[in-house]
User: What shape does this take?
Amino acid sequence: MNDIQNFTLEDKKILIVEDEESNYDLLRVILKKYKPQIFWAKDGGEAIKMSKEEHFDLILMDLQLPVVSGLEATREIKKNYPDIPIIAQTAYVMTEDRQKAYDAGCDGYIAKPLKRKHLIELIYKHIEK
Assistant: This one.
């Protein structure tokens, strides 16, 4: 993590999949400093559709979503785009929930409430690999 101080997301496209506007706003504020292009999907179905229309460098996926769950959306997106890193973000922190996220294809996992430093380190790890 030696370069994290100079880390930028400029020219990167990040899809935030989040049904709660306040949670989306928090993520947008945290990421703003790093200058990515941010896109917002309010449910898993919208995330699947958007992933077919736009290339994303990273997806932050809430797991508890209306219409199509984050797990279902992750499975579908990974089928078509296995190289896009998807980080699950959820208030559910039980070990089996974490395993379900990884089984669905998530590359990382972060519990809500989000800790800014942990989130940035996780994004850095997946963007800079």
About this structure: The radius of gyration is 13 Å. The beta strands are 13-17, 37-41, 58-62, 86-90, 108-111. The helical segments are 21-32, 44-53, 70-80, 95-104, 116-127. The chain is about 45% helix and 20% strand.
